Amino acid sequence: MFGDLERTPRTLLVCDRSSFLDEKNRLSSQVEQLHFNYKVSMLLPECSSAPSHLEAVLNSFNSFYLIRKLPIHELLDKHFLETSIHQGLVSGLSYRTRIDEDNCVALMPNGHLSLSLDKDSFELLGVEGKLSKFNQRTNSRYVVSVDLTDSSLAPGGRGYQRLVTGLRSRLQLKTDFLLSHHPGGGASLQALLSRCDWSEHRPEVRSHTLTDLFCPLLTSDLQSCDPHLLLEWLGAVDADVSCENSSSSFLSSLVCPEPKTTMSRALSVSVCGLLSPQDVHRLIQQIRCYLDQPRLESWASLTVHGFVDSPVSWGGDEHGVLRGGENFYSLLMFHDHTYHLHLGTGAHDTCPP
Amino acid sequence: MSVFMDLNLSFTAERSRLKTLIETAAHLGFSTVAINYVFEPATKKKQEIPTPTPIKELIDELPVVQGRYRPIRVLNRLTVVMSDSSHFRPNAAEYRCFDLLSVQPTTEKLFHAACMIYDVDIICISVTEKLPFFFKRAPVNGAIDRGVVFEVSYSAAIRDSTRRRYTIANAISLMESCKGKNVILSSAAEKPLELRGPYDITNLGLLFGLSDRDAKEAVSSTCRSVVLHAETRKSASGIVYTMKTCSESSSQQEAPPADSGEAPAAKRAKLHLTD
Amino acid sequence: MRRADTKNEPAVYRRVVLKNASPYHYMKVCLVLEDESTRLSAVDLKQFIVTGLKSLYGEVGAALTFDLLKYDEDSLTALLRVYSRGLVKLWSSLTLLGSYQNQTCAFRVLQVSPFLLALTGNSRELQLD
């Protein structure tokens, strides 16, 4: 009976190793595909304050809007479609909704609108959709995914009318919504915002300096270090957990992976909010510039967490929550332009790209 | 999956305790709770079936569900503890004041009747004693076909270790028969610190012999089915619905409007049929 | 349990997929006590959890190793690490722990993940107003 108690839900960890100099490296597409980023945290070893070019990027992450009780059909407003969605300038995600309980909405920058709905709402909406991959047996959740740039959804057409009527009159779906826009897309949002209760938010930047900590010896070949141990160490640094234990300690036997060295100091900076992949990409470029200069330690790491309750994770793949909806990646970059990318997901997710 | 529910918070006349109980449930992430009034007819003297106190009189402002804007939804539930078939009166008008109706049969015959005949929503599984009967496949399947669910409550297992043993043993014996279908897990908590979060209960369900998925459904989708089952029970085939228009006797608090979109009760998710 | 598909290309490109390979699970928990002025040291807390394991799973349960990675005495919040095989047991014994030194208590499990990193990046904690 209790044999099953040792099992845990599925987890996936993809480890990629490549080089920025390799023309076939897929890093930028992997970064682009995680549309909704909640937190970016960066670790710079042997550094006490970020150089100005990094500081500038961290402080220039695009701001985003919180719209309260947005009727979702407003996103299909003809003017908004033409000025923002068709230009690929906006993306957004429902806020204060939980993917394993509530109706969730995501608007991807490529113009795809993804709705994760419970059975009642799905039937009320009356638009074609698919059964959620993770709730197959009970038929309790459905995913509706529409391409708003498709000609069949051109304003005035039948498909468009059907979706708008469904959202406006039948389902009356309203939710708090986080909206971010690409540089230059701000103006096109004004018409939408003028009809709603909204506030603008800047991503929150926090930094702190760590001193005298153990650190695994990180070199670009990284043969010796197990990826889970490496991620555990990065997590321990982020959560401010001490690794100064021995296997005989009563409280904790967490130790730094061998072979290890010590760092006299390190800088950890995090940014929280609805962050766009483009901003993350800019940050990666600046960290590469930073690594180009000779340093004591020749690496830097960057971890990006996706939103737990987003209906999609990488690309347009369905995402869900069983116990925790973690979807994140951790990038370890080296002076010689090689990098190690670890992409992790929980039980209700497809394999990362 | 649907929202998390705890369909069994023990009623207490102590108003402040009931209030903190509901607040704690909301804080833990439950979107719907039911206040449970237990009615245990004694053999000799005649007793009154309790009447539910409308939630508006108990609590001024309903607390907001964790991480969301909407307030918690509170239902009323009656549990009849039966040791004799006369204890359940199918047409009692008093039952109609409650949103959910459940029975706790104490003999095999009554269990059979509860599964096959009684118009109830929930059958409680005793967690305070070793079961005096086995769960036979036929009545269990009958109950599953009729959309009646079985309830295992966990707070007795927190209070005392003997009851913990009975809870686990009886739950496992139930799961052997019902294969994890039509099971809800609820607290039966009297104090706020006896409540546990939805994910904790999901994990606890594994000890009762449920799978990961069934355990999560036992605090969400299956509970939703019960609430809808109760709504259809009050109406004729889920189509005709009668209510008094002059008084405010309808105790069921409306589900929060608009943000989830209310569906007619007839659209309830299909309960698991035998397979 | 473990699948690895490795492509070796002439350059340095290498991709490995690890399924269910996470050796540990991590939990963020908070102890709530009836008497809020009660103080517990890290050692007390760990011993208390061990008694919970022992009462539910006996000596074998008490022998389940887990680590108290971090503990904040003011908020009674802790980070735990447990072998993935022991997660269900540790979690269920936390759930069923109901009293500490004759006062009622409850462990509130705030987050569980196979990645320690995920515990510092939970978007459900995003507060905007």
Automatic annotation (TrEMBL), chain A:
GO molecular function: ribonuclease MRP activity; ribonuclease P activity
GO CC, any one term: ribonuclease MRP complex
InterPro entries with a match to the protein in the record: RNase_P_Rpp40 (IPR013893)
One of the GO BP terms on file: tRNA 5'-leader removal
One Pfam family this sequence matches: Ribonuc_P_40
Domain of life: Eukaryota
Name under which the protein is recorded: Uncharacterized protein
Species of the source: Zoarces viviparus (Viviparous eelpout)
Automatic annotation (TrEMBL), chain B:
Predominant localisation class: nucleus
Family named by the database record: Belongs to the eukaryotic/archaeal RNase P protein component 3 family.
Protein name, per record: Ribonuclease P protein subunit p30
Organism field: Zoarces viviparus
PROSITE patterns for this protein: RIBOSOMAL_S2_1
Record localization: Nucleus, Nucleolus
Subunit structure: Component of nuclear RNase P and RNase MRP ribonucleoproteins. RNase P consists of a catalytic RNA moiety and about 10 protein subunits; POP1, POP4, POP5, POP7, RPP14, RPP21, RPP25, RPP30, RPP38 and RPP40. Within the RNase P complex, POP1, POP7 and RPP25 form the 'finger' subcomplex, POP5, RPP14, RPP40 and homodimeric RPP30 form the 'palm' subcomplex, and RPP21, POP4 and RPP38 form the 'wrist' subcomplex. All subunits of the RNase P complex interact with the catalytic RNA. Several subunits of RNase P are also part of the RNase MRP complex.
The organism's taxonomic lineage, starting at the top: Eukaryota, Metazoa, Chordata, Craniata, Vertebrata
GO BP: any one term: tRNA processing
GO MF, any single term: RNA binding
UniProt keyword terms in alphabetical order: Acetylation, Nucleus, Phosphoprotein, rRNA processing, tRNA processing
Sequence segments annotated as region (Disordered): 247-275
Entry annotated with the keyword Acetylation: yes
Gene Ontology cellular-component terms listed: nucleolar ribonuclease P complex; ribosome
One Pfam family in the UniProt entry: RNase_P_p30
Its biological purpose: Component of ribonuclease P, a ribonucleoprotein complex that generates mature tRNA molecules by cleaving their 5'-ends. Also a component of the MRP ribonuclease complex, which cleaves pre-rRNA sequences.
TrEMBL record, chain C:
InterPro entries reported for this sequence: Pop5/Rpp14/Rnp2-like (IPR002759), Rnp2-like_sf (IPR038085)
Signal peptide: none
Gene3D superfamilies recorded: Ribonuclease P, Pop5 subunit
A Pfam family the protein falls into: RNase_P_Rpp14
Full protein name: Uncharacterized protein
Domain of life per record: Eukaryota
A GO molecular-function annotation: ribonuclease P RNA binding
Keyword tRNA processing: yes
Species this protein is from: Zoarces viviparus (Viviparous eelpout)
A Gene Ontology BP annotation from the UniProt entry: tRNA 5'-leader removal
GO cellular component: multimeric ribonuclease P complex; nucleolus
Family: Belongs to the eukaryotic/archaeal RNase P protein component 2 family.
Keywords: tRNA processing
